[in-house]
Amino acid sequence: MQLDFFPSRTLTLYLARLFIVRILAVLFMLVVVLMALDLLGATGKILAVEGNGQAEVLRYVSLRVPQLISRFLPYSVLLATLITLVTLNQNSEVVAMKAAGLSAHQVLAPLLLTAALVAAVSFAFNERIVTRANATLKAWEAAEYAAIPDESGVRANVYLTDGTNILTASSLVGTGEDIEFDDVTWYERAPGGIISEFVRASRATYAAPGWRLENAERFDVGTAETEELGELVVGKALSPERIALDAVDPDSLGFLELRRTIDAFDAAGRRTSEMKASWWHRISGPLSALLMPLLGSVAAFGLARSGQLFVRAIIGMALGFAYFVVDNAALAMGSFGGYPPFLAAWAPFLLFLLLGETVLVRTEE
């Protein structure tokens, strides 16, 4: 029995079915609650547009739900792991399995197999559905939930750099010299990256070269004084061709398409840290589901009557949520260039894999 990684076929199917049902139940509960909370803020904005009604609200739900599923599926696997293992422990099923000669790894093997299948489905779901929902929803939000013109080139949350300076905008519309920015902010940074002043404007258009800010207002950080400027031309190194290359949303591109975009940026000598980190995280993100049974395994073992089952469940939950915190922090550091992209995407996964395995071996094996 110890030489087999999986227990019997019957026990494997029983544990896998138990686990997957709880994953789906927890995921359904999370998505329903979060979608309801999201609609409290979004419904008013959608219905404020003339002509919008129930169909547009349902359209928003259809675009938002895939995002929620993608983001909270790993959390669902973690919570389902704890519920499953605590239930098995309370019913003395873990004790029975260990008495039959199964090791801790063999007890967890069906859960790990199920989590691996969930990771594969999550990757395919992200590629086929989530990326398209991201692109459509961001364009719709940039148009303030009004009808999106065909081939409008609408992009939301634009972030561009011109040397040490930064230009941000809530939306970008059009292509080439017809590009227009809305709700623009131009940050001027002193040596060392410190922002010395910033300029806000309602709109920006191409000035050949540079971008003409309309109704501009400057705020000096050092003196805390505000000055009305009217019109101001900034970002003369930001050509329409460069913006077309810069205004790429990694979340809206498929795995292979993002790889081709990274290659194009590299060929043009552009910064690709954020996109490379996102590309690697397309793999390590779904694989985080594989970590959850390992991190939550501390709740499976130890006698339920010892009174420490609740403490073990809390430890398992703390390990799982610590992974998500570290993963998000590392990904943010990778996007800003603080970590190499590969390290930013994979270091949290490998660290917590070793941590979970160490805890399991030291306590149960």
TrEMBL record:
Keywords: Cell membrane, Membrane, Transmembrane, Transmembrane helix. GO terms for cellular component: ATP-binding cassette (ABC) transporter complex. The keyword Repressor does not apply. The chain crosses the membrane at residues 14-37, 68-87, 107-125, 309-326, 338-356. It is a multi-pass membrane protein. GO terms for biological process: lipopolysaccharide transport; transmembrane transport. It is found in: Cell membrane. InterPro entries: LptG, LptG/LptF_permease. It holds the Pfam family LptF_LptG. PANTHER family: LIPOPOLYSACCHARIDE EXPORT SYSTEM PERMEASE PROTEIN LPTG (PTHR33529:SF2), SLR0882 PROTEIN-RELATED (PTHR33529). NCBIfam families: LptG_lptG. This is Permease. It comes from Erythrobacter litoralis.
